From TrEMBL:
The keyword Ligase does not apply. It is a multi-pass membrane protein. Heme b binds at H68. SUPFAM superfamilies: Fumarate reductase respiratory complex transmembrane subunits. It is found in: Mitochondrion inner membrane. It comes from the Eukaryota. The lineage of its organism: Eukaryota, Fungi, Dikarya, Basidiomycota, Pucciniomycotina. This is Succinate dehydrogenase [ubiquinone] cytochrome b small subunit. It holds the Pfam family CybS. GO terms for biological process: mitochondrial electron transport, succinate to ubiquinone; tricarboxylic acid cycle. The keyword Kinase does not apply.
């Protein structure tokens, strides 16, 4: 009788926990990509200081900064609002982050193409 009261629980307390299949894209490759992206930001920002205004550098730097920020906030959501513990708020937060990241990418593209660009902004901020 007690087993039928909780229909969402499968098996007994003595059954092993099923683990997902190993996937390097969710582990070591992902971590390595995050570290490489973080390390690449140092020479990219340095290149803005020594080079003239370059739209390709603007684009690469902008996408790298937005990707770095997105991955950082995504890790915060994974740690604190995991869908297993927050079945409603977790997915809402993830989709909100995705929408905000897409919006920021559009805004950065507009800023780089229709305004002074990120490298010129950094130079003006450095001199200010």
């Amino acid at each position: 009788m007690a087993a039928t009261a909780y229909k969402h629980v499968q098996g007994t307390v003595n059954d092993p926990t099923p683990f997902p299949a190993p996937n390097k894209a969710h582990g070591s490759y992902h971590w390595t990509f995050e570290r490489l992206l973080s390390a690449s930001l140092v020479p990219l920002v340095g290149a803005t200081a020594v080079s003239s205004v370059n739209p390709i550098l603007d684009g690469i730097l902008s996408v790298a900064i937005v990707a770095h920020s997105h991955m950082g906030f995504d890790q915060i959501l994974i740690d604190y609002l995991h869908p297993r513990n927050w079945p409603i708020l977790g997915p809402i937060a993830k989709w909100t982050l995705r929408v905000v990241t897409g919006t920021v990418l559009v805004g950065v593209y507009q800023f780089n193409t229709n305004d002074i660009g990120i490298t010129e902004l950094i130079k003006k901020g450095w001199k200010a």
